[in-house]
C-alpha cells in the first residue's frame, strides 16, 4: 500500500531568456506550481502545473489556492489505483493544468513505488524523441536570425510563431525557409487569422514552394467550421491546439473532420484525457503532436515521459524549459540539444 | 532488461459441464492455446488464446502453427516496452485471439518483472467486479430451471441466449423474468434476428413489463444500419458484440450512432484495440460490457485484470471458466460465486 497522506503546492517563477511573443501575448516569465504528492511510506511524486490564461482561462494565483481542495479529494487514496485518482481529479476539469500536474505527480509516485519509470508504465514505445525549438514573433530580421541559430544548434524542426500580420508572416516564413534549408516547419498562428486569411497564407507560401509540416491553429478556438474550411483548402496538414483541450473537444473535431493533426498539451487535458485523445486520434488515422505551455524541466518531464511511453507523436514541441532560466535540470530523462532520450 | 527469448504455444482442451448452445452453434468442449512468454532473466508471462471461428473466422489448428511466426516477430524485444510489442502484434489482426493471448502474456511478464499485478498497471480502478452467468439455448422449461439455479447461486445478472425462435424466445425471457425477480438480464441474440424481428422482440417484452438491461447483437455483424434501426426503436440499450471487433469497427459504430453499448472481448480485439475502445466509448458517453469466448480460468484472468484495472464496464460476462471442467484454477484473482476480487 502506498496511500497519499499529503499534497503540497509551491509557487515557482522562471524568467525567459528573452521575452516570448506570440499572437496577442508577450511573456517575461512563467509562474508555475510545483506539486508534491507524499505517501504513507515516504514516497514523493512530483508534478508541475503550468497554467495558461490565454488558452485555459486559468490564473496561477487562483490555482495555488486549490491545494487544500486537491488534498482533500485524493488523500488516503492509493497511488497504485491511479485511474481512481484520475477520475476524482477529472472533476477539476475547469482547471486542467491543476488536474494535469496532480495526475502526473500521482503517476510519478506510483512509478517510484514500483521503481519503474513512467515511460515504461505508459508503454515504453520510444527510447528517443526530438524536440523542435520556437521562434517567437519579432522583426523579420530577428526571426530569421533566430531560426538560423536554432537550426545551427542542430534542431531540425523549427516552430515559427505568426498570426499578427499576414503579409509580414508570409515574408518571414519564406525568408526562414530560404535560410534554413532542410529544416521542417511547424507554423503556429495561435488563432490570429480569419479562415480566409489562413487560406491565403498557405496558398501564397505553397506557390512560392515553401513546405510546411504542420499549420497550427489558424483561427479562433471556437471556430470549428473555420478550422474545417482551412483544412480542406490547405495543402499542408492543419492542427488544432487551442480548439483541442478536452477529449470531448477532440471527439467533436474528429466527427466534424475538422483537422489533420491534434496538438496534445498535458496542461489542457491532464493525463486522463490525453490518453483518450491518443487512442481516438490514432484510430481515426489522424496525426498527433505534443506541445507545452511555460513548463520548467520538471513540467516538461511529464510530457517527455508521456511522449516516450505512448510513442504517439510525429512532432514534439517541448522546448519551454530551453527558453527559461533554471538553476537545476529536473527531468528524469537525458537532453542533448534537440535529442531527448530515456535514462 | 527483460528480453523475450522464447514463446511457447500449448494446446489445451476443456470439456463443458453441459453442451453450450447459442444461435447457430453447440459446443461440447473448448480448445485453447496456452501461451508462455519467457524472458532472459527467467520470467514467464502467461496468456491464453481462445479462438472463435463463428466470430473471428479462426481455427485453432491453424493458430497453433503460428508459434514460430509469433516468436520470430517479438523475440529480443523487452517486455517493459510493451507498446512496441503490441504494435508488432497488431499486424496479426486477422488472428485477433492470437494477438490477444500473446499481448497479455507480454504484459503478464512485465507485471511479474516489476512485481505489480496487471490490474494496477492498467489503473487499479476497481477492487471487485461481479460476473453474470449464462443460460444457453434449451427448452423453455430447462432454461427457466437453469436461470432459477443461477439466481439462487447468487448471480444477480443473468445472460439469456436467444435468437433461434422469436415466439419461443419471448416466452422464455418472460418466464425467466417471472421466476427470478430482481435479477438483471442481458439478452443475447447472437445475430439471430432480422432488424424487424428484433424490434418486435423488444416491443412485446416491453409491453409485458419485462426489463432488459442490455439487448446484445440482435442482427448480423455486418448490418450496421440494422443495428442502428434496432437501437432507435428499442426501449432497452442495444449492444454490439460480433459487430464490434477492432477499434476501427467501434469507431464506425460510434460515428454511425448505431449502439448504446459495446461488448469488448479481448479475443476479438487484443489488449491494444481494447484499450482504444475503452477510451473512445467513454468519450462518446456510451456504455461498455466485457465478455468472453471459451476461456479457461487462465484466459478469464486476462479479462478480469483488464476489467479491474480500467474499471470501464457496467456488466461483466466472464463466466466461461465456470462452465468448463478444469483441474486447477489459474486466475490471479479471487472468485467467490459471482464476485471477483483482487488478491
UniProtKB/TrEMBL annotation, chains A, B:
Its cofactor is Mg(2+). The keyword Metal-binding applies. It comes from the Bacteria. It is an enzyme of class 5 (isomerase). Pfam families: MR_MLE_C, MR_MLE_N. Keywords: Isomerase, Magnesium, Metal-binding. Signal peptide: none annotated. Binds 1 Mg(2+) ion per subunit. Residues 140-237 form the Mandelate racemase/muconate lactonizing enzyme C-terminal domain. Its EC number is 5.1.1.-. Belongs to the mandelate racemase/muconate lactonizing enzyme family. This is Dipeptide epimerase.
Amino acid at each position: 500500500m502506498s496511500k497519499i497522506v499529503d499534497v503540497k503546492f509551491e509557487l515557482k517563477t522562471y524568467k525567459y531568456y528573452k521575452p516570448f511573443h506570440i499572437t496577442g501575448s508577450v511573456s517575461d516569465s512563467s509562474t508555475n506550481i510545483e506539486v508534491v504528492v507524499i505517501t504513507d511510506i515516504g514516497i514523493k511524486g512530483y508534478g508541475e502545473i503550468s497554467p495558461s490564461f490565454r488558452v485555459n482561462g486559468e490564473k496561477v494565483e487562483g490555482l495555488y489556492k486549490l491545494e487544500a481542495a486537491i488534498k482533500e479529494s485524493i488523500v488516503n487514496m492509493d497511488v497504485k489505483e491511479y485511474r481512481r485518482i484520475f477520475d476524482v481529479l477529472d472533476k477539476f476539469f475547469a482547471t486542467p493544468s491543476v488536474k494535469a500536474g496532480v495526475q502526473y505527480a500521482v503517476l510519478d509516485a506510483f512509478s517510484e513505488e514500483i521503481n519503474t519509470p513512467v515511460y515504461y508504465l505508459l508503454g515504453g514505445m520510444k527510447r528517443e524523441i526530438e524536440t523542435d525549438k520556437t521562434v517567437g514573433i519579432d522583426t523579420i530580421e530577428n526571426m530569421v536570425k533566430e531560426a538560423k541559430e536554432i537550426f545551427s544548434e542542430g534542431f531540425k524542426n523549427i516552430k515559427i510563431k505568426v498570426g499578427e500580420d499576414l503579409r509580414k508572416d508570409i515574408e518571414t516564413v519564406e525568408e526562414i525557409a530560404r535560410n534554413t534549408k532542410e529544416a521542417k516547419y511547424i507554423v503556429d498562428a495561435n488563432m490570429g487569422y480569419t479562415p480566409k486569411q489562413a487560406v491565403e497564407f498557405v496558398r501564397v507560401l505553397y506557390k512560392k514552394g515553401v513546405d510546411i509540416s504542420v499549420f497550427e491553429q489558424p483561427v479562433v478556438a471556437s471556430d470549428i467550421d473555420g478550422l474545417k474550411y482551412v483544412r480542406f483548402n490547405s495543402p499542408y496538414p492543419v492542427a488544432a491546439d487551442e480548439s483541442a483541450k478536452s477529449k470531448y473537444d477532440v471527439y467533436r473535431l474528429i466527427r466534424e473532420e475538422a483537422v489533420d493533426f491534434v496538438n496534445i498539451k498535458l496542461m489542457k487535458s491532464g493525463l486522463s484525457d490525453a490518453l483518450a485523445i491518443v487512442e481516438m486520434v490514432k484510430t481515426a488515422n489522424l496525426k498527433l503532436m505534443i506541445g507545452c505551455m511555460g513548463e520548467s524541466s520538471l513540467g516538461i518531464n511529464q510530457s517527455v515521459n508521456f511522449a516516450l511511453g505512448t510513442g504517439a507523436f510525429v512532432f514534439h514541441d517541448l522546448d519551454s524549459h530551453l527558453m527559461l532560466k533554471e538553476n537545476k535540470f529536473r527531468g528524469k530523462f537525458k537532453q542533448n540539444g534537440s535529442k531527448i532520450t530515456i535514462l
